[in-house]
Structures are given as structure tokens and as C-alpha cells.
Amino acid sequence: MSRPKKKTMTRLPRSPRGKAGGKAGKAGGKAGRQRRASPQAGRQRPASRQTGRKVKFQVPKGTFDILPNEQNYYERVSGVTKQLVSAYGFLPINTPIFEDVQLFEKGTGATTDVIQKEMYTFKTKGGDYFVLRPEFTPSIVRAYIEHGMKSWPQPVKLYSIGPIFRHEKPQAGRFRQFHQFNLEIIGEASPINDVLLIQLVTLIFKKLGIKGFNIQVNSIGCSDCRSDYKKLLIDYYRKQRRKLCRHCRERLKLNPLRLLDCKEEKCRQLANNAPQVIDYLCEECHNHFKEVLETLDELDIPYLLNPYLVRGLDYYTRTVFEFRLEDDSLLELAGGGRYDRLIELLGGKPTPAVGVAAGIERIISVLKSQDIKIPREVPPRIFLVHLGELGRKRSLKLFEELRNKGLKVAETLSKTSIKSQLKAADKSGAKIALILGQKEALENNIIIRDMKSGVQETVSIERVVSGVKKRLKK
Q1: Which of 25, 98, 380, 445 could be 440's S-S partner, Cβ–Cβ 3.0 to 4.6 Å?
Q2: Domain closes at, from 347, 369, 391
Q3: Does 432 lie in the same domain as 347?
Q4: Domain range enclosing 76
Q5: Would you tell me the crossing angle of helices 464-473 and 388-404 to the nearest 10 degrees?
Q6: So what's the pLDDT on residue 113?
Q7: Where are the beta strands (DSSP E) in 348-453?
């Protein structure tokens, strides 16, 4: 038998660099790597695959998780809001959290900080250009037009509660995702609606127990009387241009009214000597604002007349107002105003309207800083304990029966040890434990145990509700 031939390997000559194949081999290897990588060209591997280290995921910058122990604050603010505004005839409305970007560019105003700096925009695979809503009002107006609410009895009163998104620099009181409650009255020009919104926010804050806030009001007139005022304002600031901050130099060209509410100290000093818009109101705007102030006086709602208050959105006309803390004049809790031209601007018929929005996170921060206690839900006073598989299955059924009778019950159905379940019952603060074991389940009975004294009584399942209620009254 002949032996199989031994395979031989030809050794390539070493290159001057000391690597087999020399430059040609290196180039070929590089080309091969490029060919192999071509399907993923332009894609970057995740950090975990590049480094081999585990990624530590965290909430995005400027956002936060609302944990279970924080939920009662949100429920309190939204609950008080819903209760009060519903009593005044406001109806709930929910709109998508993303909309066509042009809705906000046209509605909010292309020269506002919200549009220029703070919007989260994205393009879909289908080519649509959307934005995560940076405020509620344009979305509500879009819905008003789209669904023919003009044919409804006017005015239409609507409220919304939900998340808002702005790409701001995260700092105290400013987040990239936060929550607002928003109120709109659409379809009437009466000054009484301006006052109604101010009154409602005042009532909400008082109901929540917030103290030490003030209400600042102003009128920025209509487009007719404001045009002459803008000319005077531009003339004044042009002479002071070198003293303006970088942002205000841009505002002077794009949106001169915003010069009045700049937060920079040097710009605030310049605003103190600027012409005041209230001195240049037309007769109709003057009478409107006069009635707003007189009605606030009639309702004994204190306010501060702030001639430099203009708000940051282009659609505002006539009345504007803000709620601020007295010990932190820069922290705005709520703000709003009239927008009589916005619906027409977005394609509807000329329709007057007024709205207000309040930041829920800022309200919560005030509740905490003022040590305002939030009423907590009463914990269950009954704890359901099971033993054995049949007892566990019957307990699940009994839990629902007790709940339907208006009794709040706690349980740990996943646990099997009666000792651990009674320990959980004691820790929960429950007054009564209902023990359903294998024997009790077969006999259609249940044990009622007083958690404080340890005294137990066996009763039939049919009598458990009356037995529990009787013991809870003691």
C-alpha cells in the first residue's frame, strides 16, 4: 500500500516590513476587509461591541423617571385640575404628541426661541417631517379646525394634561420632557374669558395649598396698534445696541417685542426705560384691558401690572399674564394670553381665543419646597393569605369578589410560605388577615385573623364580607 502524499505549504518570502506578503498582502487584506465591511458602511458599532464593556443605560439628559413614590404628586395636581375645570364646563381633549413641523413654525412663530432652538424634529422613512410638541395650543387649534368645532356651541372650552418636549439646557425647573395642564377657551372675544382662566389657575393653586405667588398682567395690543409701538421700540434699542446681549441683538432684527423680557441683567435695566406698549393701545384694546382689570378687582384677585410682560410666542394679542413665585421672580409657574389671530393663521375662520398652560413639575417643586403634604391613598386594611394550590386559586377568585364589594385587599399570591405572608401582612399595616388554606377551600370556609391580637375565627365564605366589615368598624 502506498503512503498518502504529505501536504506541503509554500512559505512566502518575508517583506522588508517583516510580514508575509509585503505591501501587496497588506493591501489585499485591507481591500478584503473593506469588501467584507461594505454592507455596514457608514454604520458605527455600539460602544458595547467596540469595547466589549457593558453599556450602562440611563434616562436621556434632561428627562427623568416618575417613580411610584412620586406618582401621588402628579395625581394630586391633575386630579385637582380636572375637578375644578370640569366644574366650569371644560372638556378633555388629547392630541398626538407629534405633529407636522409646519404647524408650530407657522403657529408658534418662526422667530421664537421655541422654534429656533428648542424643537425636537425628525423625518420619517416616508418623508414626513414631524416635531414632538413643544406646547399644546397649535395642536388644539388644529383639532378645532379639523373637526369643525366652529359649529359647536361657542365658546368651546377644552383642557389637556400631558407631556411636552423642548430641547433646552437642563437646569433647575427646566427639562427636555415635562408635563403641563393646558386650558383653552375658543370662540369668544369677551374679556371675561381672560379673567376666567386667571381665576381658574388661582383656584387650582389655592386648592393645592401653594402660597406666595403673584399674577402679572399686561396688554400687548393688536396687530394695528402694535405696529406703531414696534417702530418706537426699535428706535429706542438701536441707540442702545452695543449694550444689548448677543441674543437681543438678534431679537432686535427678528422679534423686537422679545427684547422686553430678556433675563440678562443689563438688558433688564435697558427695558426699564423703554417705551411701554400699554401707552400705545388703540381704543378697542384699551377698553378690553380695562375690563379685564376691573373684573379682577371685582373678584378680589390681586395682580401686578407689568408693562414689560410680552410672553415668548408670536401668536399672542391683547391680554397676557403669568403666575410667578414672589421669592423667585424668574420662576414662571403658569402663563397664557389671548390669541385672536391664530386660528385664521392656521387655515380656519377668524376666531378669538384665549389659553393658559402651567408646568406640573414646577408646581410639584413648589409643593415640596413649601412642605405641602399630599393626601395619600388609604392602604388596604385586609390582607389575603393562602396555603396550598387550591387555596391560592380560590384566593384569586375571592380577591375579586371582595374588591367588587368595595373592600380594598392586599396579597402576595406568589409566596407559598404562610409565615412570609403573615409577615408581609403585618408590615403592610393591615388590620385583618383572611387565611384560605387547602382544608378551608374544600370546606368552603375561611379564617379571619385579627393581626393585632392574633385571635382567629373560622367562618363560611358567604359570611366573610359581613364579618370583615363588622371587625373593621371596631
Answers
A1: 445
A2: 369
A3: no
A4: 68-222+282-369
A5: 70
A6: 66
A7: 353-359, 382-386, 409-411, 432-436, 445-450
Beta bridge partners of 180: 162, 359
Spatial distance between the Cα atoms of 357 and 363, rounded to a whole number of angstroms: 12
Give residue-wise pLDDT tens across range 341-355. Answer: 999 999 999 999 999
**Per-residue cell: 235:** 428706535
155 preceded by a cis bond (ω within 30 of 0): yes
Domain final residue pick, 318, 341, 369: 369
Q: Are 440 and 447 in contact (CB under 8 A)?
A: yes
How far apart, in whole angstroms, are the C-alpha atoms of residue 433 and residue 436?
Answer: 10
Q: Please state, as a whole number, how many other Cβ atoms lie within 10 Å of the Cβ of residue 163.
A: 13
Whether residue 140 contacts residue 93, with contact meaning beta carbons closer than 8 Å, is answered with: yes
Write the single-letter amino acid at 331.
Answer: L
CA distances to 144, 190, 226, 294 from 318, rounded to whole Å, are 22, 12, 10, 15
Residue 208 sits at φ, ψ, to 5 deg, of -75, -15
Are residues 414 and 307 part of one domain? no
Q: Is residue 215 within 8 Å of residue 321, measured between CB atoms?
A: yes
Nearest to 132 by CA among 165, 169, 100: 165
Distant-in-sequence, close-in-space partners of 74: CB < 8 Å, separation ≥ 6: 66, 179, 360, 364
Does the residue 333 lie in any domain?
Answer: yes
Clarify whether residues 359 and 389 are in a common domain.
Answer: no
**b/e map of 255-280 (b: 16 or more CB within 10 Å)?**
bbbbbbbbeeeebeebbeebbebbeb
Is 227 part of any domain?
Answer: no
Give mean pLDDT, residues 186-196: 97
CATH of the domain at 150: 3.30.930.10
Distances (CA, A) of 147 to 140, 141, 194, 303: 11, 10, 24, 37
